[in-house]
From TrEMBL:
Record carries keyword Hydrolase: no
Keywords: Coiled coil
Organism: Platanthera guangdongensis
Protein name: DUF632 domain-containing protein
Residue span(s) of domain DUF632: 1-130
InterPro entries per record: DUF632
Coiled coil start-end: 150-181
Length: 235
């Protein structure tokens, strides 16, 4: 899975590097009401993407942590106090069966992975998208004042903003669960910059995270093969 995802993210990074039209669209002058609606919908999708990614990684880590913790309870393990303190838990050192060693290796590998760079880049890109539709919405309202349509537009935007705020509240709850709330929210206004570069940072962060995840699972697989070979040598 991680190998397939890495290949996809590498292709995406290459594609976005060549997508010069993105910034021209964002700075192409006054956008229509339908364009602003589409950009608001994009922000909604980004918030959902961010929340789903955070939940997905958190659940994977929690699953492995729970399994490893359950296995630890099956051992009569008493931490040995040395002059340097208590050494980290190592089932291999105390002669535990291979399953204990492999699950602990799996837990340690995932625990070292950090998804914060991905979520930070996603948040920054979502903030940049929000800036675009807010700026164009102000200009659109000013234009509609002449046509006396600003009240209708204001009510419409309020309804759309409520939907975005609900999605943001849902995201906040997910980040609370994953213990990332303090590091990511409340969000600060995004620095002015290229829309393409913001999206590229997201994809590059995903590529890096996927690369690290792939290596983590390769390490776990190698450890499992070592344990298998050790058992074969004892037979």
């Amino acid at each position: 899975m991680w190998k397939g995802m890495l290949e996809c993210h590498q292709i995406q990074c290459q594609a976005i590097s060549e997508a010069n039209f993105l910034d021209s669209i964002a700075s192409g002058g006054q956008l229509s009401d339908s364009h602003v609606n589409a950009i608001m919908q994009l922000e909604l999708e980004l918030l959902g993407w961010m929340g789903n990614f955070a939940s997905w990684i958190y659940l994977q880590k929690s699953f492995v942590k729970s399994l490893n913790g359950w296995l630890v309870l099956c051992l009569h393990y008493e931490p040995e106090v040395t002059a340097d303190g208590v050494p980290p838990y190592s089932p291999g050192r105390i002669g535990a069966p291979p399953a204990f060693v492999i699950f602990n290796c799996w837990f340690q590998s995932l625990d070292r992975l950090s998804e914060k760079d991905v979520l930070h880049s996603m948040k920054s890109f979502a903030s940049r998208v929000k800036q675009i539709w807010q700026q164009n919405d102000i200009e659109l309202r000013q234009k509609m004042i002449v046509n006396r349509e600003v009240e209708r537009l204001q009510k419409k935007r309020e309804r759309e903003a409520q939907v975005i705020n609900k999605e943001l509240e849902a995201l906040n709850r997910k980040l609370d669960i994953t213990s990332l709330q303090d590091s990511l929210l409340p969000s600060q206004p995004a620095e002015p910059g290229s829309l393409r570069s913001s999206l590229k940072q997201v994809l590059e962060a995903l590529e890096s995270f996927t690369t690290n995840s792939l290596k983590a699972y390769e390490d776990v697989r190698a450890r499992a093969e070592e344990e298998k070979a050790a058992i074969g040598a004892q037979i």
